[in-house]
Design a protein that fits this description.
BirA Bifunctional Protein, domain 2; 20% strand; 3 domains; binds adenosine-5'-[phenylalaninyl-phosphate]; elongated; Arc Repressor Mutant, subunit A; alpha+beta; disordered C terminus; seven-stranded mixed β-sheet
């Protein structure tokens, strides 16, 4: 154990310890540096390191050093103002207050204070403005305050070491503002502990250590005979914070990895979308509450978008009005193409699925990650701008059970147990919502919606297989996974929190 400690000791630590030994195991850094020819920085750093290993103790006591301010220096040279007045009074005996400044050369602002001290010291009396020298004024020897001032011109004094006489002088001068400066100065004493004593008793050899091996030493084989210091793997080190991906981005990447691994194709839509793809194509009636200004951001420029090919528009119109060929009765109202042309910030990513189905033939598996926008009041679980991951699986054999299986698998891979409950979306039947329990809120939080796309959605798009669809909120997932109680934390750039989060590797992710 002792040998191990010695092995790990730095050369400077050994030197400091040796110097302390020669000084009776207790000394100051200044003495150590003198003995060993080290810099004060080297001594202090070695002392800190020795102290952290409990080999020495570093005692610090703070001394207060008294020196003169500029005003103090002027007083010390010219004399205290009451002394200067006294010198004039010794000749004139009695002077009216108003003449004191001109006769003594003391600033008018200081005269009052000086008179105060004259009276306090008993050097003069004051009667109706007349200042008259007293008998003790005639004799007045140099006071302790004056002696203290004179000494301070010669040298700085340490408060803790003042003689009683100087203590009195200091007490008096301290009562006057701005004459003295008091600076704290730390003094260190290094003292060997019992562990340090044991190490010294076992003998400490000071020998040069190899720090950097040269090419020559390697070539000649001399490196084998050099002395190396052992690593101290418990040594203190400065904290370092590695750069890392933001946790929300990390969650997005994890989600992408899961779907890519499950064989899904990734698709991207646009944030600016037409009401047609965001709502109409998904069989959301044009008077649906979600389309109201309170829920959806409508865009002024461009206000309108182009509708897709006529055939699709016609079919969507019929699906809304009377069901068309879909086997449904529709919503029974007059569908307005102008309402469908409006441009919106997409309120969900389901529009990406609709567009994908329009362009691709089943069988297919597609997912998409992106930002969506809603006019929401911000709460611990609501943001007006958040991410969703959307997905569809289209195949002759796909059914609602498969959909639940996919969602279970997805959440399972992220470490969640979810429950499903019946739900309603205009574009799916059957429909469901997945939820997870938040113990600290004692409530269930909804993570996403899903269902089988309705014929009113599929028929106009020309899709003749069942399509399982889902849309899941990402921020809520991230919030629960990171153990944060408020969704806003994800957007607050709280550097303390971000620093504490574990670093994860991206490796294979870089290419995706
Ligand atoms: C939808 O957006 C549907 N399009 C999902 C869907 C797709 C159903 C395909 C069927 C088929 P919903 O409005 O419930 O559903 O939003 C889905 C998820 O987004 C929610 O479960 C929630 O996790 C998240 N979310 C919704 N609003 C907010 C919000 N304001 N802040 C943060 N996350 C939200």
């Amino acid at each position: 154990m002792l040998d191990r400690i010695k092995e790990e000791m730095h050369l400077y630590e050994k030197k400091v310890l040796k110097a302390l030994e020669s000084e009776g195991r207790k000394s100051t850094p200044e003495k150590v540096l003198e003995l060993q020819g080290l810099t004060i920085k080297a001594v202090m750093s070695a002392a800190g390191s020795l102290a952290s290993k409990n080999i020495i103790e570093v005692h610090k006591d703070v001394e207060e050093v008294i020196s003169l301010s500029n005003d103090g220096e002027a007083y010390a040279q010219e004399g205290l103002p009451e002394r200067r007045i006294l010198n004039v009074l010794k000749q004139d005996k009695s002077i009216h207050m108003k003449d004191l400044s001109s006769k003594s050369g003391i600033e008018p602002s200081e005269v009052k204070i000086a008179i105060g001290w004259l009276l306090r010291k008993g050097w003069a009396t004051l009667d109706k403005g007349e200042v008259t020298i007293s008998s003790s004024g005639e004799a007045a020897p140099e006071g302790s305050d004056e002696k203290f001032l004179t000494e301070l011109i010669r040298q700085e004094l340490i408060l803790q070491k003042l003689s009683p006489d100087f203590q009195e002088g200091y007490g008096l001068l301290k009562q006057r503002k701005g004459l003295l400066k008091v600076n704290k100065k730390p003094n260190y004493t290094l003292e060997v502990t019992s562990l340090g004593k044991e190490l010294l008793e076992g003998g400490i050899k000071i020998r040069e250590e190899a720090t950097q091996i040269t090419h020559d030493q390697l070539k000649s084989g001399r490196w084998m005979n050099l002395h190396y210091r052992a690593y101290d793997i418990n040594a203190e080190h400065p904290e370092s914070f590695a750069g890392k991906t933001h946790p929300l981005q990390r969650t997005i990447e994890e989600i992408r990895r899961i779907f890519l691994n499950l064989g899904f194709t990734e698709s991207r839509g646009t944030i600016l979308e037409s009401a047609f793809w965001n709502f109409d194509c998904l069989f959301q009636p044009q008077d649906h509450a979600a389309r109201e200004m309170q829920d959806t951001f409508y865009i002024r420029t461009p206000q309108d978008t182009l509708l897709p090919h006529e055939d699709l528009v016609k079919k969507v119109k019929r699906a809304h009005e009377d069901g068309g060929e879909t086997g449904s009765e529709g919503w029974k109202y007059q569908w307005d193409p102008d309402v469908a042309r409006q441009s919106v910030l997409r309120t969900h990513t389901t529009c990406v699925s609709a567009r994908f189905l329009n362009e691709n033939k089943p069988p297919l598996k597609m997912f998409s990650v992106g930002k969506v926008f809603r006019r929401e009041t911000i709460t611990y679980k609501h943001l007006p701008e958040f991410h969703q991951v959307e997905g569809i699986v289209a195949d002759k054999s796909i059914n609602f059970r498969n959909l639940l299986g996919i969602l279970k698998e997805f959440y399972h891979q992220l470490g969640f147990q979810v429950r499903f409950r019946p739900a309603y979306f205009p574009y799916t039947y059957l429909s469901t919502e997945c939820e997870i329990y938040l113990p600290e809120k004692e409530s269930w939080i909804e993570l996403g919606g899903a269902g089988m796309f309705r014929p009113e959605v599929l028929e106009p798009l020309g899709v003749d297989t069942p399509v399982a669809a889902f849309g899941l909120g990402i921020e809520r997932l991230a919030m629960i996974r990171l153990g944060i109680k408020d969704i806003r934390m994800l957007y607050q750039s709280d550097i303390g929190w971000l620093r504490e989060l574990a670093v994860t590797h991206r490796l294979e992710w870089e290419e995706i």
